Amino acid sequence: xxxxxxxxxxxxxxxxxxxxxxxxxxxxxxxxxxxxxxxxxxxxxxxxxxxxxxxxxxxxxxxxxxxxxxxxxxxxxxxxxxxxxxxxxxxxxxxxxxxxxxxxxxxxxxxxxxxxxxxxxxxxxxxxxxxxxxxxxxxxxxxxxxxxxxxxxxxxxxxxxxxxxxxxxxxxxxxxxxxxxxxxxxxxxxxxxxxxxxxxxxxxxxxxxxxxxxxxxxxxxxxxxxxxxxxxxxxxxxxxxxxxxxxxxxxxxxxxxxxxxxxxxxxxxxxxxxxxxxxxxxxxxxxxxxxxxxxxxxxxxxxxxxxxxxxxxxxxxxxxxxxxxxxxxxx
Length: 331
Description:
By secondary structure, the protein is of the alpha+beta class. It has 2 domains: 3-186, no CATH class; 224-329, no CATH class. The chain has helices at residues 3-13, 58-62, 67-95, 140-146, 194-198, 226-233, 261-267, 282-295, and strands at residues 17-22, 44-51, 100-103, 151-152, 158-159, 167-174, 204-214, 217-224, 312-316, 325-329. The strands form 4 sheets. A 4-stranded antiparallel β-sheet has the order 1-2-6-3, sandwiched between helices. The termini are far apart. Mean pLDDT is 88; it is low at 319-331.
């Protein structure tokens, strides 16, 4: 079994993308995010990418149907489809005499982005004092970069030459000695910063940057506010949330991570996967995707443009004092 065998099998099982990284490329990663602690004997990280079909965003783009992206492009990909493909690929690797440890894109709650072990020391504990606390929170964007699959955009979203920002990622760690892919040397993001101007949460800086070193390369993006993102993404801005309860007070969301049941109740969307994707990645995926398609740089081509009219925004009518809202187009 070699790297080509693994890639061929991964794509036959349903993955759209597959890249391979050697484990030394994760040298310098924070202990709590280092995949080598999950499988110390691993020699290779297999990173799989699964496209989010463009049509999953159509209903959100029109402001008429929000369940497809939430249910199929987010929740079901993470919890159903990707794990099924990973299981079959793990079995294939195992049938060839090697161990394969899956790292799905889901977290049980013991180590999450906004509440870390440092914030809540009793959340979990190291089993020997030297190892990180469970669960390790790998960064799939870092793993995809190390596997040569693409680059970080200004938004911090991972961009591939095939789909731009339209994919979700998972990884499998294996002790099989597979040839790693070279790091990506192309250029996808041109720093147009449409992600900045169209983000409804103002979560991405237009001027300040952040970055890290991955596999010896400095990787940089616009400074990102994860709390602001969480509020906007779950529908914390009434201009982009047709489900928000009439008695909600959006100003009370500021500075609070929106991934909790109390805020979900006032944000209003109770569809599949809670209210996780009401905003529909307006800047970081949709605006970015539109720009990259217009430039013609993506391999996934379409006969028709995604957006042909200005995007919608909800705001109070100016001709009465009822406070009722109407859909108004704007540029």
